[in-house]
User: Fold these one by one.
Assistant:
Number 1:
Amino acid sequence: ILIGIFLAIVAFVAVFYLLQDQGGGGGGESPASRTTTPTVFAAKDIPLGTQVTEDMLRLEEEFPNEQRTADAFNSTSLVVGKIARQDIVEGQQVRAENFSTGSLTSIDCPDTLRCIAVQVDQVTGVGTLIRAGDYVDVLVGFTGDKFPVVQINPDEGSITPVAGISGTTVKVLLQGLQVQGVLLPPPPAQDGTQQDGGTTSGDQPTNLTGQQEIVILSGTAQQMELIKFAQLDGNISLVLRSAGDFRDPNDPTIPVTPIPDVTSGVILKTLVDDYGVLVPEIIELILPEATPAP
């Protein structure tokens, strides 16, 4: 029995030293003892809103751990296809923070432009899925009480509102504004319950709660005036655009300005004349003549 115990101890010690030799002296380092880690860098400037491609990146196989940020990527495959939610400068480590869609804490408004906040909800803000770097059009609507139909008396010069005629008007006001950031409300408490009004599309539940979002748009001074007027007297909706419309197809890091679409705007008459919306049938009612009083 003693000889067996002795041989077992000898075998254990031999295996222990054999594994040490394979892990350190002959084969490689254990992850805990490594002093370098593969790290992804930007090979060129990657502007806000750009979808990252392989040629925009370079991988440094052995980058010192003490110089590496905690959320840096160690493989280009983890980055390709992502949308930059902030500017990434050439030579900078590519970090998870560069693609974060969380609520912003600061903002750098582009040179020569201004930034303005627009509050939207799940209906007027594309489900509150708009994020930094996206491009949007600003759609404005004015209802009849803001834009009444009036009749002018040419003899007296008096103006009389006409009842029963829709004064609603809708127009794409601005096109191709870039989102510089978003502010989202705190997430709901995780109590395991679904709020009323929830629907499901595929496997992703959607709570129709009217959640709101503040979207920071950049533009010229004139565009800021238009947005402010629409906020005061109208109703604003943001329409999401394809990021590809604003990037050179041969080099996505180069921004381009697409030609704005020409739209007619819409009033009730437009729907009737151009889209065949039927007007109510007018029925003439003939009343009997009144009998004169004796």
Number 2:
Amino acid sequence: MQELIPDSDIFTIDALYYQPELASIHIVKSGDRISLIDTGTQYSVPQVKSALDKLELEWSHIDYIILTHIHLDHAGGAGALMELCGNAVLVVHPKGAKHMADPSKLVAGASAVYGEKEFKKLYGDIQPIDSDRIISPADGETIEWADRPLTFYDSPGHANHHHCILDHRTESVFTGDTVGICYRALRYDGRAFVMPTTTPVQFDPDALHASIDKIMSLNPKVLYLTHYSALYPSTSMIAGLHEQIDDFVMLTQNAAESHGDSFESTLSKMIEEYLVRRCQNELPELDINIIKNWVGLDANLNAQGLAFWWQHRRQA
């Protein structure tokens, strides 16, 4: 556990999802009260317990468990944590609430993507949450929590059930997957390679562009990404993210036109090669094998999401 920004009372926990430093959970602390933002999976619960122990706090000190969205690398541990945190309320986007109360469709969808065996390995059991313990703030609504109000902003594009959270005390935003992903391994000397995530099945490039602009209009001092943690934004970084989204769309069109309906594997290779080249250009100091390893983690899922979007768009 690390408090990356001094005196922020925001602590990063490694969810240990798939591999270290791929997904983070954030503890927001106000006195002896806690809000937890994103949960990792049920296998992340010991990580949260260890962090609480270091802060000399208990499960009962957690007031809110907040999900940026309900993809299971962000929300898979919510049910297990809610059982442990008897005082906690789950905060989730209005379009995601019913799926946390009855996660059967979430499980079926993720199992279809990963296969049942890999699903169990990654996520374990997904437990339902009593709907009476779930709240869903509207776009722009503020929860007046302790001495640090939290405001929620609808931010579709990566997923329809996505919102970002502004912590007024630090002027920081917890962005989930809306403002891209930026692994620690892809940072060097104050510079960082940020890339979009277009995983299945609700990618919408126009909505994602708009959501990024919406979040950046808040003038956040720090972005807290689930993949992975604190990032100081810059104009060039955000411009590059917009450019990549447009390039992803162009690559999808090219792959579809040259390979017909069975273009996912080609698109995956194209996306990976594109991101490797771009990262090399932006961070030439990094070892090429490190770049390939981290960029390659997302290429296939990104291609699946882009292919689904393209096919749906063409049929509309």
Number 3:
Amino acid sequence: MRRLSRISDQQEETVVQLDVNIGYWGVAVGRDPALAREAEKLGYRCIWTAEAYGSDAATVLAAIAAQTTTLGIGAGILQMPARTPAMTAMTAATLDDLSGGRFRLGLGLSGPQVVEGWHGVPYGKPLTRTREYVEIVRRILEREERVSFEGSEYQIPYVGEGATGLGKPLKLIGVPHPDLPVYIASIGPKNVRLTAEIADGWLPVFYSPERAPEVFGPWIDEGRAKSSRAHFDVVPTVQASVGDDIGHARDHVRPMIALYVGGMGARGRNFYHDLACRYGYEEAANRIQDLYLAGRKEEATAAVPDALVDEVSLIGPREAIRDRLEVWRESRATALAVASLDVHTLRTIAELAL
């Protein structure tokens, strides 16, 4: 089977690797191959899609893989609570086989609202669950032996309450996939540290090229010091829009920041709010959260500062995008996942970056 290079060293400073992130709207791209094929033609490395409580990511990626030949396909992310580690490993191996070795496996735990409110399973211990999950998935993909695992979150074979006692260790049917890269979406200090230790790559959001290296750098360095993996791919998702009306572009990005900073987690348990505070926007972050949790979402959106929008996005006219890319080249990002369904935006950024 032909296998494409998926994890590489940082390219020269004059080049920024580009991915494209189609978010939760993957069905539209899977149905119409034009955007994915254009991204492939422009030299984008990989296309990522996510899942929450709408379309699943795996089906969309299979459709995109069938319509492209060299473009990587990335799950950004598959939700760990939605699948057993074995089911995720099977899905990953299948997508990798179907795409000729183009698949990247991105994993995320999501938050208690989705884990318990949608999937109906306990949130558990996030760090322990992530470590055990990744280890099981890797053991299955390596296919060196029948898989047994005894952890605090996962047991294979299961021997707990209600077990029949008939379970037995099994091995993945088919070829091994030992080099299939595993990415983790994380944002809090302990989670980022763990990501740098056990994963091949990291999928952050709201990554400020000016501030993130200082904020995240120590956590990444601590994790990498414990890692045995050769490469670590840092792929921030960056909301992007090319156009002369900077105000319109900002207003396009603002609602997502408001949602995450204000409503993606309870008060005191919102890592995105905490991140905005670490970036120096504590007063604005508190106001956004207060308004959002009070149900005043439009006011919360209006309270998102222009400066924060500009830091974590690639928006504005061509010249502004070019200047911001220079800043991104000096960050610790190894690739940018450009979040846009606009072909003009994707083409402009590719012309400036590649």
